[in-house]
């Protein structure tokens, strides 16, 4: 610039010729990183912001590295075989995340905030196997894009109440847990593969119901049933927050109508082939049946169910 300013001729300027670099010489943005030991884990440098697939396994991580949560292009995050105990709500800020693998960690719960995050629009595969989870939150079923769900080898005593809302779910594995029965909406699933091996399913007791009916029904029960049955819109601007939660947790009678806190509950046998094309045997005896909860909104509905049940037995 100085020489040009002084009026030097172009021929005398000491400039090298500019040559376009070859494609092989240009470093492409890094999209995948695999770390499988603690000694290889980056402590002093950041992860490349262009990453789409990050695996950090066998690194003895006690919590999720906040630097990972800045990777906005991340589509697959594999943190299996660590010692993670909690999930931060900021995982929900990974707007492109499609696969999350948390197999073999120390998780005891699943963060409710993640169920209402952007993950409900992006997450397709979730592996929570080999953890210490006893129950998943009811809001878990907001993750309606899930196709693959693995929950093997936990301490689950129940599945999410509204699991039937997972309409895209095709592969479900909940082997070796502590499930005594399945939720009523399990029957709404349409699966390719189902594995419930090693759960202590109770023997169904259709003739021994658990009765929670109040006669006459309370005004709250009447109005709640009407709100759901007639599909009357509501939100937290109209109703108190806890009432909205109660309505979201309403049960569905065999007749198709809703009930809130007044109902009859019992367990019946369900053939798992009715919801899945491929079924792993439930036990070593070759069984493909499990107990499932049933709800009835009135004595009339329960009586009609008993009549049908007794006819089948005869």
TrEMBL record:
<dbReference type="InterPro" id="IPR050216">
    <property type="entry name" value="LRR_domain-containing"/>
</dbReference>
<keyword id="KW-0677">Repeat</keyword>
<dbReference type="InterPro" id="IPR032675">
    <property type="entry name" value="LRR_dom_sf"/>
</dbReference>
<keyword id="KW-0433">Leucine-rich repeat</keyword>
<dbReference type="InterPro" id="IPR003591">
    <property type="entry name" value="Leu-rich_rpt_typical-subtyp"/>
</dbReference>
<dbReference type="InterPro" id="IPR001611">
    <property type="entry name" value="Leu-rich_rpt"/>
</dbReference>
<protein>
    <submittedName>
        <fullName>Leucine rich repeat protein 1</fullName>
    </submittedName>
</protein>
<dbReference type="Pfam" id="PF13855">
    <property type="entry name" value="LRR_8"/>
</dbReference>
<dbReference type="GO" id="GO:0005737">
    <property type="term" value="C:cytoplasm"/>
</dbReference>
